[in-house]
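FORM 7B: Structural annotation worksheet

SECTION A. Query
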Amino acid sequence: MATAQLNGVTIGYDDTGEAEPHTDPHPTLVLLHGHPFDRSMWTPQREAFAATHRVITPDLRGYGASTVVPGTTDFATFAEDLAALLDHLGVREFALGGLSMGGQIAMECYRLFPERVTGLLLADTFPAAETPEGKAARNSLADRLLAEGMKGYADEVRDKMVASYNEEASAYVHRMMLAAPPEGAAAALRGRAERPDYRALLTRVAVPALVVVGRDDTYTPVADAEAMHAALPDSVLNVVESAAHLPNLERPAEFNAAVHAWLARVTAPRA
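SECTION B. Predicted structure
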């Protein structure tokens, strides 16, 4: 794990698979974690793709080894942090993926700097803006996390994040949620409540896209993934069986196979 001082905060990140000096650089794959997780949720993907790609997995501000900033962290701030980190690392263009909130932040990155994104992976996420009821729920949850900490919430959502039949992944995800800083998670929730609507943006995505969803995901059901797939001009939809909201951890072999095929499309010569 490394850190960088950017935009007034410390950003923790892993940078795996960078080519040796004087050799052709590997293409870069950037993966953004969801809430309330950290960069370690991408460990199976870092290990799978390090031989062919430079894989960069940051901790979003407020999570993991990155600085916790109380208040509200909007999606533009998360995106600006990522742009600054990639500038710091000398990366101009990259394939970008995210899961859940990370997928929404990936959409925000494409909104702000599409010229840098060579491919878009959207896993277990959805593009619509929050409803008034959803905004109230996000802010209420933020208040609760600040008052109670993470345990009650983590216990309640554990079986929605990871299907109960995926016991090893469930235990890992539960530990990751318990370790999340309540102030950082609350700030992200307040920012997420005010996110823009990305549905029109998806119709203008000009790079190869991959939409992945767990068959048993109740947060972002298959119907949401199908709608994104229909909106994106050049996309593939992959439904991962026997997985809920975190198929990259529940069924890493199947998830990685879909990502491998997507990365082949990303690097193929464009017409």
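SECTION C. Observations
The first helix runs from residue 43 to 49. The beta strands are 2-6, 9-16, 28-32, 54-58, 94-99, 117-123, 209-214, 235-240.

SECTION D. Sign-off
Analyst initials: ____
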